[in-house]
Input
Amino acid sequence: MASSDDAKLRPLPNTAALSGVLEAFAFFRDPAFAQKRFKRHGNVFETSLLGQPMVFIQGGQAISDLLAQPNAVEGWWPESVRQLLGSHSLANRNGASHRARRRVIGQLFSASALQRYSAGIISMVKDLADELQAAKTALPLAERMRRFAFSVIATTVLGLEGTDRDELFVDFEIWTRALFSIPIALPGSSFAKALKARERLLKRLQKVLLKASNGNGGLDLLAGGLDEAGIPLTDEDVVEQLLLLLFAGYETTASSLSCLMRELLLNPQVETWLREEIDGLDWPPAPEQATTAYDQVNAPKLDAVVCEVMRLTPAVGGFFRRTKCALVIDGVEVPKNRVVQVALAASNRHGAGDLEAFRPQRHLDEGCSATLLPFGGGERVCLGKPLAELEIRLMVVGLFHQLRLHLIPDQDLTLQMLPSPTPRDGLLTKVL
Ligand code: HEM
Output
């Protein structure tokens, strides 16, 4: 790092919060929490959230300074997430043991694995299009997107069907509710219930793993996975990675899909612009082209819409690292052992031009002035990015190729921001 007597280094600005109770209250209530403080303190500042000191950063320079120093940082999650994910989870590991598990689990998202999943995903999109077409009353599209995103992971990737999947879903919802709670297992508390749900989930996932060789889903791809010492991963280890996939891949993808549908239905001129492209694409795609038919090259307008939705309403508002030594971020000296949050939601609106507006064309014309990393970056970049992108593209083309949807009037279309943005009244929609 640059030496601390470098005249250009600035000390770390601090909000002067002591207990962090009011800051935490503001953080959970105010979507502009970070933006307001960046305005006051610059692109790097420190505050405290319920006693946890946290450095927030935004902007291209700060983010690239952080990601350029992978050996100076490690992964970090709040204590509740850490406990509920478990000590084997790759999210809670660093260095060689993290990399070894990424290599194993990453096989579930290789090009050939995605090719294998695509027929199942297309069939789910068709089922939803048929359901919307046949519906006599309005349907909550956001709820359908949740169901779809969960089924893609549970059925297409893990190979679960019927009651196995439904029971897993019930426990998973109990587990998710406590992810960002106070991690004290008082009897009856949501954290205590979540710990019990976690035990049931792991048992169920263990059974799923035993059945993996039956060819459903993609779990056979994990056979023979080795840890950092070249020793086969234990089942206990693998099931915690599967739990992580449910956590990381479900809410995020569902949120991106709901926000994308919402933006298109609220902006008919963008929908018309996108339809010009979609009308020229084949639906369903030829099986051997399913993973590339709607990519950036073949569907640039769709790509721009996806980028713009992830910019304005990122499913993950921020990601974390902890500093292992002092380092310089955008000219500010951040001490050792600090939790750093890359504030994606604020950072995506930080730059020149009309960044508050929904305008996908910007990604095709002048490019976007903000640094966009909706899937994070560096050694911990999202493992499921290729799957999430595939799901989203197949869903948008599949629905918009076949249907004209419209929004039911007088519903609350504002977004509930936590855990990931979702329209408050569920995005009530009907086919025209
Ligand atoms: C639109 C959907 C998604 C978004 C926006 C998203 C975003 C992210 C972000 C921001 C991170 C943190 C990266 C970092 O720390 O640098 C992450 C990590 C991760 N994501 Fe995703 N994600 C999505 C979907 C998925 C899916 C579908 C899966 C798998 C089924 C998945 C699996 C993971 C895993 C395993 C990690 C942890 C990686 C690590 O710690 O090494 N994600 N994701």
